[in-house]
Amino acid sequence: MSIDKAEYSFSTCWNIKRHQTGSEMIEEIKSLGFRRVELNYNVTTELMKTIEPMIERGDIGVSSVHHVFPHLPGKEFDTDSLMLGYPDKDMRARAVELLIQTVEYAVRYGAEGVVVHPGEVSFPYNIDEELKRIYHAEGRDSAAYQKLWNEMMAVRTKESGTYLQLMQESLEQVFERLAARNIHMGIGIETRSRCYQMPTLQEADYLIKQLAGAPLYLWYDIGHGMMMDRMGLYDNVKEANALKDKILGVHIHETVGLSDHWCPYIHSGDENYFDNFIAIIAAAPIKVYELKDKCTPEDIHLSHERITGKILVK
User: What pLDDT was estimated at residue 14?
Assistant: First the structure.
């Protein structure tokens, strides 16, 4: 029998591709010892037909819902879009409506928070993909990497303020409309896995300060932070720990090189580095494992044992 994972939650991203029926997907997660799940943005209305009765019966709890929810086909409002930062007013208005919809589902399911990818700085092509290719082939210190990185940062630095302002305006609209309906769901803006995506940790802190009084927080994705640190975007350990009190939830996973969603301590073989995030996990109101399907139940149990053991020692 699996060890009860208590207050920890588990994202449906782990096994959603293996199941055609929502209830089977949830039962597999329950078999790992989790009482709660995060419903990720690939969960469809069809899958929810068999998950909702489980929620209503109390067979499973929902810690969090990942925007856009339920799954919305198409690229205009997918997880890697401009989303709340669209310069086009109609597109941005649609993004606001979709976030309110996700919050409504979160309230309906008794969730504690909503995870949001607020947007990105627009580039004509996936410059992050090219940077990662050079990183693997030649290294971060190579002339080719440094040249392209500096080009990316010049655009990012110049344009990010405009997108931050648009995101702020969108979030203000969301919170105003939710407050008018007496809905006070916490929204966490998530650290991302591509260097042109927003927010960085400093950008998240800025937005949280700008919307002081609203239930806006950082959703700290540990593995993504590790990736951005390795690529050179920010000092992940220092900045994340400085924002510990502004974190609504964490996505718990580790990055091996620039490959993310692995089990902490297990796949990297590093027994010490992930210790930098133990205090953050311990303090986070919502703790969610967000792992790839290659992580086996044995990997997951062992990783959880290491993490909780280190928290007890702390």
Answer: 98
